[in-house]
């Protein structure tokens, strides 16, 4: 089965190989001469982060590689599963849906040939309303409220409506880009915006400059209820994230993982993981979200089978105790 792909390719590069993986002592049997990393739309964290580590790996391993513009986590699972992209990036929710065969790109197809490679960072779920609305808690959201959930088919649009359903919120669903929804909130066309995106969300930061907003946190009970129902983790939005916040705001987040086609050679994936995980400073220079791209976060994957090359790296270098039945 073939899947349509966006055609833009970002910053492909061919450069000299590193001293570690370009010499004759490394078995390169079966390695591809080039690779692509499925990211998301331009201007987002996925595109910047994914293109960055693709270029880093290409440079270190002496290959041609780059980030590919895609529709995001759901499409990345499909592209990597079929081998149309060697690597990709996904959140745990879309990964779980893809394994169960409920990925909307190919309903019924269990995308089991996409394996976990390394932890990336967390995507927090955050809720914002204008102060003038009087909405300060989730319970304050009035019946029939118009809520903007981000781009159609995004992680935010896939999971935040379900979370609102779980919490008993009655709403009208709206979709759009981050900046567009922020403008609609300010113009009174929306009551609430509910984003799953790296913080600070630029649209929310911009709103703070122009008007008074409320960053709405979950109660402990709401947080626990959402964590029990969805593949998310406890998260606090730090007080210094937004000028509006006076203290940390209770939230939840979904982990992002890089993924690899499970059929790629073990030595190749091991080398890719080593390149990305062995020097966090280089990754943070690519995108500050990479502050969470740390070996100790290997255990945040509770959904996908590990690629054997990735599993070996984390077992050897991070003391990981990955069960054998979680390694492909």
UniProtKB/TrEMBL annotation:
CDD domains: PBP2_TAXI_TRAP_like_2. It comes from the Bacteria. Coiled coil: none annotated. InterPro entries: TRAP_TAXI. The keyword Cytoplasm does not apply. Keywords: Signal. Residues 1-22 form the signal peptide. This is TRAP transporter solute receptor, TAXI family. It comes from Poseidonocella sedimentorum.
